[in-house]
Amino acid sequence: MNGNVSDYYNSIIRNNVGRKSRPEMSEAERLLWAEIRQKKLGVSFERKVKIGPYFVDFYAPKIKLVVQMNRRRHDTEEGRRKDAAFDDYLRKKGYKVLRFSSTEAIANINGVIQRILLQLYQTNLDEDTENPQGSAQG
């Protein structure tokens, strides 16, 4: 069998195993996903993406933005320590990380969306500052 065909089938198996191993979305994650999927905020988001050793809840690859939904287990000392290590790892790799509690998302999904939009706006400002239009190309 051709190596390319073998690689293709192996990738299908890996992807299917990955999908099945991902936890089901919480109510808060479902609410947020309904608001950010299909480029509703002007940028494409993916869900349950593996970055390094971590799975992230939502990821906008074009701007390296990670959005995490915290459940109750994040409220413990150990949970906060793990979250800090998680965030530190991602930030060192150049990702921006936003965290929201599930309670906050359920009670105020519009506020969560506004904070994500603010981050998208800030990211666009940063990119415009780094690459101003009309600047001479070298």
Biggest β-sheet description: 4 strands, mixed
CATH architectural arrangement: 3-Layer(aba) Sandwich
Shape: globular
Structural class: alpha+beta
Give the radius of gyration: 18 Å
Uncertain segments: none
What is the number of independent domains? 1
Percent range for helical residues?
40-55%
CATH class: Alpha Beta
Instruction: State the total count of DSSP E strands.
Output: 4
Number of discrete helical segments: 5
Strand order of the largest sheet: 1-2-3-4
Task: Output the CATH homologous superfamily.
Answer: VSR Endonuclease
* Mean pLDDT figure: 84
- The rounded distance between the terminal residues' Cα atoms is 48 Å
The percentage of residues in β strands lies in: 15-25%
* Order of helical and strand elements: HHEEEHEHH
The name CATH uses for the topology is Endonuclease, Chain A
Keywords:
single chain; 138 residues; alpha+beta; Endonuclease, Chain A; four-stranded mixed sheet; 5 helices
Task: Report on this structure.
It is a single chain. The protein is of the alpha+beta class and 138 residues long. It has a single domain (24-128), classed as Endonuclease, Chain A. It contains 5 helices and 4 strands, in the order ααβββαβαα. A hairpin with a 2-residue loop joins strand 1 and strand 2 (54-60). The model has no long low-confidence stretch (mean pLDDT 84).
